[in-house]
Amino acid sequence: MTWTDYSSAPEVGTPICARAAVRGALAVAVETASGAFPLLLVETAAGVRAYVNACPHQYLPLDHRGPQVLSIDGRRLTCSNHEAQFDAESGEGVAGHGLGCHLDAVPVHEADGMLRIGAGPQA
Fold it and tell me: How distant is the alpha carbon of residue 85 from its chain centre?
């Protein structure tokens, strides 16, 4: 499954939030004509990464039981429900129920201080 398979997937160019709002990990709901699209933004050494905020283990939001989903070193995302772990830069599962899975990456880009849904590979 890719992010575009979700019924509420936003159009390319849809604004998400100000880039300055992303410190660590930030869960947001992007409003679309089809409803709210759950997005998890994470600040990494390679820039802001975005994923559908749905753990592939049971498709609950990673922050279902609390907002602390990013490791102290900023390298791993952990599902607060069953502790599946994912690499913050790639979304690949690295431990627990995350092994063999990956988060659905959403391409984003920054324009004039705003993050927007991008096209193609994640920027």
Answer: 13
